Amino acid sequence: MSDPTEGMILIDQLVAQRDTSQLMQLLHSTNFETQLYAINGLWQLKNKGIEYTEQELFYINNVLKKRGSIFYCSGCVYRWEDSQKVSHKFNFNN
Fold first, then answer.
1. Using one digit for the tens of pLDDT, what is the confidence trace for 6-52?
2. Closest of 42, 37, 81, 34 to residue 58, by C-alpha
3. What is the pLDDT of residues 50-74, one digit of tens each?
4. How far apart are CA 22 and CA 65, in angstroms?
């Protein structure tokens, strides 16, 4: 298994600290890949019992609706990947 990316190291730290405020700031980044890292962290916290406001869910779902390509790490292979294929598992509607 490869080493985690710098982005995932940050997300893992924020999740460990349960820092939804910083994750929401990352969600508002102009960088789509950064937004998806934030979604990953927010989703992990959701699965640990964190609930989000309607406003936060609005922003989360807007990012999840975006389409495009992102530079994605899968193990030790980096490639361009469709964002919808990467983010399909992040469901905040239940």
1. 888 999 999 999 999 999 999 999 988 899 999 999 999 999 999 99
2. 42
3. 999 999 999 999 999 988 776 655 5
4. 21
Q: How many domains does the chain have?
A: 1
Cα(15)–Cα(66) distance, rounded to whole angstroms?
23
In this structure, is residue 1 part of a structural domain? no
Structure tokens at 43: 């989703």
Q: Distance between CA atoms of 92 and 39, rounded to whole angstroms? A: 10
Q: Whole domain around residue 22: which residue ranges?
A: 6-87
Residue 78 included in any domain = yes
Q: Is residue 94 part of a domain?
A: no
pTM, rounded to two decimals:
0.79
Is 93 a domain residue?
Answer: no
In this structure, the chain runs to a length of 94
Task: Give 81-84's long-range contacts (Cβ < 8 A, gap of 24+).
Answer: 83/32, 83/36
DSSP symbol at 3: P
